[in-house]
Amino acid sequence: VALSADGAVTLWMPSSGTTMYRHSNTLWTEVSGISFNGRPAADWVNENLFYVYNREDGYMYISTDKGESFTQAGYVGNSQFRTARTVPGLEGHIWVPLATTSEDGTQSGGLVCSNDGGQTFTAVSGIGYCEAVGFGKAADGADYPAIYVYAKIDGVFGVYRSIDEGDSWVRVNDDQHEYGGLANGEFVRGDMNIFGRVYMSTAGRGIVYGEPSSENPGPEV
């Protein structure tokens, strides 16, 4: 489910369906231009914009008419994961994890981002494998929200945070706090009111969260 920036329109994709539905003014209608199972994401600023990533053909699909119809936009890349994230407070900013695992267990696929509404995407350096990305309250003095990923960086898998738009990362969990992975929730998200607080889906353990502790300068989650 995705809610438009003005709260007037809801888009809903059933978990195993390929038809998306739009709710507005008490009416449900079918969305045109979507024939795959994808998770809609609303732009946080422009109420007319929605995005859906198609992990099968690797393209981003965009709506400029408040979710009534979608057209194919820029190429993102293929992934085993479906969830693209838009950035709070910034129109047209989209980040997509591109994790894939081959039959022999090799993990690949990093993280890409767009700042032009999904027309073009750029790889984020230093991330070799990424399953999820999310955003939280910016650090003091920063002009971009804190970014959280569930990813492999420098060969180490975990939850990481960046306060400089992905230029550098710090791990905020440890090997004893992986919780079986993200499972089908596919999310790691920051808190928009409390800097450093991060939430993640788990494999059968509900939703967990962690936050910085002045008594424990080490891993947070």
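^ that was protein a. below is b, sequence first then the tokens
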Amino acid sequence: IIRLKYEGGFEKLIEKRKAIPNNFKRFCTIELKIKTCRRYLRSLGIIKYENLVGFRYDEPLRVKRRKKMWKSVEDKFPLYDKEITKEKINNYWINKPYTLEIPSILGNCTLCFLKGKNAIITILSSYPELADVWIKDEEKMNRTYLSNISIKDLRNIAQNNLFKDYDLNQVKPEIGRAHV
């Protein structure tokens, strides 16, 4: 197993792009994962290869919407092709003498904007400290990851138990906060 990392990590990426990713400019996966792997393979002289994508059978829209990025790369969906669902994956882990000890709601990108406001509030109810680095990014770049609300505001909602009575569709942007 070879672990790859974008040179300088996420912080350097947002500095370089002078932005943070969001639903309209979702450059994080492309830069941090896809292009980083591509650069590594090219450094080895590998131009044509298969890319194994971990979309499950219960995620058919993700498979369908996947866009071909390069002619020399063929995407394969082994979990989808073998009809592996989230339930099957959970059952697999139940029978193991160990776990990854990562709550399923967190995944590898803890507060990803693609999770949506409700999931992020749920996460921040139990893990408010996860917001710190995200808030730092938003303040540094004067942008928000989600439209109309900051991670700081979502943490406040979560920590003040406001979630039950809060209409997330009516959230207005803070005055002076720019949105990409």
